[in-house]
Amino acid sequence: MIQILNREKFVRTSVVLLFIAYLGFFSLGLPDAAHGVNWPFVKASFSLPIGWLGLVIAAGGVGYLMSSFSVGYWMNRLGVGQLLAVSSAIVSCGLLGFYFSTSFLIFMLFSALIGLGSGAIDAGLNTYAAEHFSTRHMNWLHAAFGVGATAGPVIITTVLVSFSQNWRLGYAVLGLILLFVSLVFLFSRHLWESDQHKAINVDTNQSDSNKLDTTKALTERVTQRQALKPPIILTQIAFFFVYAGVEIGVGQWAFTVMTELRGISVANAGIWVAVYWGFLALGRIVFGVLVERFSVEHLLRLCLLGMVFGAFLFTLNATPYTSYLGLVLIGFCAAPIFPCMISQTAKLVGKHYAIHAVGFQMSAGVIGAMTLPFLSGVLGDWLGLGFVSLTFVLYAIVLFGLFQWIVRQAAESA
């Protein structure tokens, strides 16, 4: 009877934590796409060059890197639940700070603050989920991020249309949502620290203690410096750098390109940016099923080609619907690339290197998300806004080439 009661308590705790984790990933995606929709109005308010959106993204990326690199230390000091509560509160403060920003410098500082909180949430949730949740839920948790990134532009666009293009109010609404999520994390913090859900990861028969011993052994066997030597790992770092630049760059610049260059209305542009993020989330749900039935390599190759074609359609702009179709294709085809490449890391480089390689990939993605959208904005300032979308085509072609190189290196190693 005691065992049955304990099992029921275990199941209840697991379900509650899983729901809160989905909520956390959803909230993590909300601010990510907000800048792309709000930027034309922020730019006008502070009298800024159009390319300075890249500086806002870069400031957030610096904060993200600072917190994600040190998340292990803070998890040991605060515990998972308290870390998530504090980090969500930090993001909320940053979003609310946008509402009160009186200069672009202050706006940048609040962007860095949001990155600081987001990095801890992202790293903390992923670290916890990788140990406790199944692979299926890991894929769907990342889909929840896409749902949040879809809802963000919808909320911002609704506020812009309904309240005389008040960009500050949109950030405040997101800030209040993050404040609510912070309270959820705070009141559930004791559940995250409980030992009763340690075995929730059911993808393997290996016990938790054995997994920890294996992880420790692998970590001790290969140092970070040694893990940077194999060419395939360096190529993967470049791949994630470019991929994140494409995903974030399209999401951040599409609204500005459509409204300021192509004359598409604020409402329509905001909706289709949301559709872009929505297909990113939908694609992760769909491909989460397909990867169990088809070759991951073939699926990724087709998706990368689809991204090239989608970027070409968006740049071509034969009609507004061509732009819309391009966004849909890029979002849907980009969906499985990040989670699948992460999951294939051990297979491609070996378990000895994978522990370090995944960390390198995540860091490269953050740096790419900071760098490439900024580069696109600089080229847009220099050569004209039309060149911003052209950079998406170039990045997508480079991404496909890097993937082919990774596959070839893996075949040669085998």
Automatic annotation (TrEMBL):
Pfam families: MFS_1
Keyword list, A-Z: Membrane, Transmembrane, Transmembrane helix, Transport
Entry's Gene Ontology molecular function annotations: transmembrane transporter activity
PANTHER family assigned to the protein according to its UniProt record, in alphabetical order: BYPASS OF STOP CODON PROTEIN 6
Compartment annotation: Endomembrane system
Organism (species): Marinomonas hwangdonensis
Lineage, top ranks: Bacteria, Pseudomonadati, Pseudomonadota, Gammaproteobacteria, Oceanospirillales
Presence of keyword Membrane: yes
Signal peptide per UniProt: none
Entry keyword annotation includes Membrane: yes
Membrane-topology annotation of the record: Multi-pass membrane protein
Domain Major facilitator superfamily (MFS) profile: residue ranges: 17-414
Family (UniProt): Belongs to the major facilitator superfamily.
Transmembrane portions of the chain: 12-30, 50-71, 83-100, 106-128, 140-163, 169-188, 232-255, 267-287, 299-318, 324-342, 354-376, 382-407
Name of the featured protein: MFS transporter
Cellular component GO terms, alphabetical: endomembrane system; membrane
